[in-house]
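ok, trying the design again with the full structure, not the truncated one.
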């Protein structure tokens, strides 16, 4: 039997947020560290997770939903099911090893993929949604996703990681696609 006070049920509906696309200015800004993990930050994390799943994507950084704060979420369980959902605040790379090239895409650059060279293994330190310090050692897809999402916090997109020739080619093609979409 339940003898305590009436349980208080707070229903907060999660929300799917608008994903900002290149060349939105917020994507170029350096994100600010989170000073304190509040309920507002936790709600933002929940909304980011829902937005990432709905897209669908395997990772999302707060600037991609217009919030210039150091928060990332990653869920690669659809590809490698042993990995849990990760939500990381103020992440920092503390060690890297090796280099590997692989194909990448980004929710802020729809329909574009390109090969990006990144560290093969990383050790990342950050804070979880309860405010506890966590250290993640990752390789493979998780290492790549962590580096990709953390780049967003530095105002970098994957097109900033490729050669200038490839970048110019991308810009021309992207502008053309935008112009065509506007005509439809
Ligand atoms: Ni991205």
């Amino acid at each position: 039997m339940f003898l305590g006070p009436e349980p208080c049920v707070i229903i907060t509906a999660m929300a799917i947020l608008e994903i900002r696309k290149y060349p939105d200015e917020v994507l170029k800004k350096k994100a600010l560290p989170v000073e304190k993990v509040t309920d507002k930050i936790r709600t933002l994390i929940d909304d980011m997770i829902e937005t990432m799943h709905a897209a669908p994507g395997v990772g999302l950084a707060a600037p991609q939903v217009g919030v210039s704060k150091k928060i990332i979420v990653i869920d690669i369980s659809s590809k490698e099911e042993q990995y849990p959902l990760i939500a990381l605040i103020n992440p920092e790379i503390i060690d890297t090893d090796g280099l590997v090239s692989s194909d990448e895409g980004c929710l802020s650059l729809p329909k574009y993929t390109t090969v990006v060279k990144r560290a093969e293994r990383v050790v990342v330190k950050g804070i979880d949604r309860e405010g506890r310090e966590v250290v993640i050692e990752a390789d493979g897809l998780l290492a790549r996703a962590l580096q990709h999402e953390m780049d967003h916090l530095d105002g970098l997109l994957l097109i900033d990681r490729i050669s200038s020739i490839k970048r110019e080619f991308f810009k021309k093609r992207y502008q053309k696609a935008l112009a065509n979409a506007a005509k439809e």
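Keeping the full-length input from now on. The chain has one domain: 25-179.
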